[in-house]
Amino acid sequence: MSLSAVLTRIDDQLPDAIDRLMGLLRIPSISTDPAYAEPCQDAADWLVNDLQHIGIDAEKRTTPGHPMVVGHIDGPGPHLLFYGHYDVQPVDPLELWHTDPFDPKLEDTSKGQVIRGRGSSDDKGQLMTFVEACRAYKEANGALPCRITFFFEGEEESGSPSLIPFMKENAEELSADIALICDTSMVAPGVPSIASQLRGMLKDEFTIHGPRIDLHSGHYGGPGLNPLREMSRIIASFHDDQGRVAVDGFYEGVHEVPDELLRQWESCGFNEADYLNSVGYTQPHGEQGYSTLVQQWARPTLEINGIWGGYQGAGSKTVIPAEAHCKLTCRLVGDMDPDDLRSKIRAHVDAQLATDARVTWDSDLEGAPAAVMNVGRPEFEKARQALSDEWNREAVFCGMGGSIPIAGYFKEILGLDAMLIGFANEDDAIHSPNEKYNVESFHKGIRSWARVLDALAG
Amino acid sequence: MSLSAVLTRIDDQLPDAIDRLMGLLRIPSISTDPAYAEPCQDAADWLVNDLQHIGIDAEKRTTPGHPMVVGHIDGPGPHLLFYGHYDVQPVDPLELWHTDPFDPKLEDTSKGQVIRGRGSSDDKGQLMTFVEACRAYKEANGALPCRITFFFEGEEESGSPSLIPFMKENAEELSADIALICDTSMVAPGVPSIASQLRGMLKDEFTIHGPRIDLHSGHYGGPGLNPLREMSRIIASFHDDQGRVAVDGFYEGVHEVPDELLRQWESCGFNEADYLNSVGYTQPHGEQGYSTLVQQWARPTLEINGIWGGYQGAGSKTVIPAEAHCKLTCRLVGDMDPDDLRSKIRAHVDAQLATDARVTWDSDLEGAPAAVMNVGRPEFEKARQALSDEWNREAVFCGMGGSIPIAGYFKEILGLDAMLIGFANEDDAIHSPNEKYNVESFHKGIRSWARVLDALAG
């Protein structure tokens, strides 16, 4: 099979590929809003139809929520499972969009041409890089170089409630040699990136109880224990003055980044000043002694995401409230165990509690361990080489500060290692108004996948 | 003039006095709700009419809000200004009332007979103790022993917006030798109490700003400064581990309670265990080294009344918010200066702020210094003796943890010392469902005022 013919075909057919993507972007498949259930069906139908056009045996599969799309096509090389999602985030605040979010446009910007519209980057544009690579490969060579299973969900932006049950029920059909996921960013513009580690997640929520009822701060101010102060003290006790989490045993299972990986990261093109200044920071605020990148990718956090209690209206109310509330999440790395960590955090709070204060916990919030990709597998080096060839720049194994639970599910439910390759940029405004995807990301993304398919088959 | 004839008349006429109070209680004069503007007029009319029946030259006086009632009657003794308020708190949650809040009832309880209904204690029942004493005095003796100005407002429960302008415009008409206020509680059941000191108040509100926009805790968790953590740390820094406020210079102007007053307070009948246990505390939580009563009456506080920031809905959101908010109030004692204190607190927060954090303050919240009554005036000892005679129990000069700004206004605008005598009990449920006033409070309250009038005239 000829790769150069595929790449030529991709270049020649780019306008058609963009047109097709525009078609998918016009479907307002907002998964979290029940009013958009029909567009979610439409987006799934669109994908089934498009895959069938390529010659892929695809169908829409119902779930209690939005449908899955599953497709199969044979090929001589290894069996790949490709995952993406066709649903998108809501578009509010609509008034901040400069164009209709569901009437996508090509736009010339100072940083090059972009495709503007909801889902252009997350994840319709990204998933179509893979589909278009397959189309070009098939059209140029009459067949695909690998056996491929396509697996698209429509609930990624609304918590994926149907995903695990569907994977369990269809484990055999979804089996493969390795999973490919296209839902991540490049570490810097033009730097091809394979995410080699993702942080895990622990969610928890607690309420500090003080007096039996809300009290008048004249009658009880002084002798009265105030849950707002109590909670603030406890939150403050979570960290020491070096930015380290002060919960006993918190760092159990955390490993230092190996020197070699650290050197790779240092030369990966990450721009620390841009990253910090763009949101108003002049310095990193995490654990002292670690670089910004290591703080973000390879160190765990205990973060407070929401607090509330007492009077929050206009003016003033002289109240000592009965309760104070706190939502927290931890980002996990290495071998940190979410359940064990939850116990440690709860024990820390218990130990901090003053006499007459009481704590209760929300028991419904889940956790997931960190994921370290199996970069020792030969597919990773093959893909890295293919990406480097396409982008004329050494591709990097990068960390990611966020959590993508699907990688863990593939391992846990299907026994599959996952390889995360994405072409998004930090400034794509995913989840925000005026989302865009660089035409360069789309074009070179398609070419990248063609090269990766070729390399994996070889 | 004969006091014993007055007291006999009060005893004989008690059922009529209760009937009259019931009439006033039936008028739903909720000042904060515009829907009840007419009942507020009705309550003022009711009082004007009742005062006129006694022979007092009374009239309703318009304001931009609810009307004032002002009345005058001459007498040989000193000139007294009596203040009370005819407006009441809203009644919600209505479903927690066992009776119609505006259909007052006499009820037998394990602690004696009570008058149940909104305003029965705060302040209609209390102000009528004075009116009924005047009525009985006049009817028994043909005249009152002192010259009296009656001054009732209808906006006390809604911030008294018309009070200061009205006092300034009518300062001459409202002049007197001393002001009497009946809007306070007894320090313990059956212990007649004159409030000799009230704490002052300082209100403030701040916002901690961190990143320019809300951030994703995956992308920025670690390097990102979190305003929720920042605010918690600052709130925690307000107090040391002995319960003392750790703001530089906070205790300037605070005086220790003189030993003699302390001894009086210790024997005043205050039940510390009841006070703490009734709201779920097993111990006082204020400054170590001070008794519960001193913490409540004579020590300043810095209290947090409300906090909020980040995500507060169901489930979880992985956000590092751009802002965190805090409402605080201080209770002031001695010579603490609200403006000076505000500067000190703001300086404390400034000094605590981390790099890249910023604070803004609400500038619209007022303050008022503590009030110490001029208990050296002979009227105080006369009143104390009269109350002791009535209740067969040494009357006490007690402190109060709350703030009653009217006492300060009398001093500031009219140059009047105020004497606060009230017969409410802590369990009267003022501002709450099922408000009540003990018949004993009403009956002995009326008798108390008759004795006080007699003593002040002598």
From TrEMBL, chains A, B:
<keyword id="KW-0645">Protease</keyword>
<dbReference type="GO" id="GO:0006508">
    <property type="term" value="P:proteolysis"/>
</dbReference>
<dbReference type="GO" id="GO:0046872">
    <property type="term" value="F:metal ion binding"/>
</dbReference>
<dbReference type="InterPro" id="IPR011650">
    <property type="entry name" value="Peptidase_M20_dimer"/>
</dbReference>
<dbReference type="Pfam" id="PF01546">
    <property type="entry name" value="Peptidase_M20"/>
</dbReference>
<dbReference type="GO" id="GO:0009014">
    <property type="term" value="F:succinyl-diaminopimelate desuccinylase activity"/>
</dbReference>
<dbReference type="Pfam" id="PF07687">
    <property type="entry name" value="M20_dimer"/>
</dbReference>
<dbReference type="InterPro" id="IPR051458">
    <property type="entry name" value="Cyt/Met_Dipeptidase"/>
</dbReference>
<protein>
    <submittedName>
        <fullName>Succinyl-diaminopimelate desuccinylase</fullName>
        <ecNumber>3.5.1.18</ecNumber>
    </submittedName>
</protein>
<keyword id="KW-0479">Metal-binding</keyword>
<dbReference type="GO" id="GO:0008233">
    <property type="term" value="F:peptidase activity"/>
</dbReference>
<feature type="domain" description="Peptidase M20 dimerisation">
    <location>
        <begin position="206"/>
        <end position="354"/>
    </location>
</feature>
<dbReference type="InterPro" id="IPR002933">
    <property type="entry name" value="Peptidase_M20"/>
</dbReference>
<keyword id="KW-0378">Hydrolase</keyword>
